[in-house]
Write a structure and sequence with these properties.
By secondary structure, the protein is of the alpha/beta class. It is 28% helix and 19% strand. Belongs to the UPF0251 family.
Length: 161
C-alpha cells in the first residue's frame, strides 16, 4: 500500500467550476481536481519552472510532475472529445493571505475566505484598527494535514472525486 500523498497547496479556490462546450453531446464529464488545476496555472499560465511550482505547492518535483501530467491528459481529453470539465475535489490546502497595514506597517496573516476567514474589505489591522491595508502576496506556505496531526488540527480539505 502506498503512503498518503501530502496535500498540495493552492492559492485560492476558483469561482467557475464547470465548463461545458458548445454543442455538448452528453459525453461524461472530465473531473479535474483543484491541485491539478493549480499545477497547470503555475506551470502553463505563470511559466514557472518545475522546482518553483513544486515548492509553491509544497510537494516534491516528482509529485508535481505527476499532478501536472494527470491534469494535462484530462484537459486534452475534454478538449478533443468535446466533454464538459468539472473542477472539484482533491487533496489540498488553501494558502493564507498576508496583509500589511498602510498606517502602522504591521504585517499579519488571515485564513482564506473559503476557510471561514473574512473578506479583504472586512479586515482591520489587528494592531492599530485601521482598514487601509495592502495584500502582500498570494499566500504563505503552511503545513498540510500530515504535518499538523501532531498539533491535533487539520487545515486540509480531502474530498473524493
Amino acid at each position: 500500500m502506498s503512503r498518503r500523498r501530502c496535500c498540495g497547496r493552492i492559492d485560492e479556490t476558483i469561482v467557475c467550476q464547470t465548463f461545458i462546450p458548445q454543442g455538448y453531446s452528453r459525453w461524461p464529464e472530465v473531473l479535474i481536481q483543484l491541485e491539478e488545476l493549480e499545477a497547470v496555472r503555475l506551470k502553463d499560465k505563470l511559466g514557472l519552472d518545475q522546482g518553483e511550482c513544486a515548492a509553491s505547492m509544497g510537494v516534491s518535483r516528482a509529485t508535481f510532475q505527476r499532478i501536472l501530467g494527470a491534469a494535462r491528459v484530462k484537459i486534452a481529453t475534454a478538449l478533443l472529445e468535446g466533454r464538459p470539465i468539472i473542477i472539484q475535489g482533491g487533496n489540498y490546502t488553501v494558502k493564507n493571505r498576508v496583509f500589511e497595514c498602510l498606517n502602522c506597517h504591521h504585517v499579519w496573516e488571515e485564513k482564506p475566505c473559503s476557510a471561514g476567514g473574512k473578506h479583504g474589505y472586512e479586515l482591520v489591522c489587528p494592531k492599530c484598527g485601521d482598514m487601509k491595508k495592502m495584500r502582500l502576496d498570494k499566500g504563505v506556505n503552511r503545513p498540510c494535514d500530515s504535518h499538523l496531526l501532531k498539533e491535533g488540527r487539520s487545515d486540509c480539505r480531502k474530498e473524493s472525486t
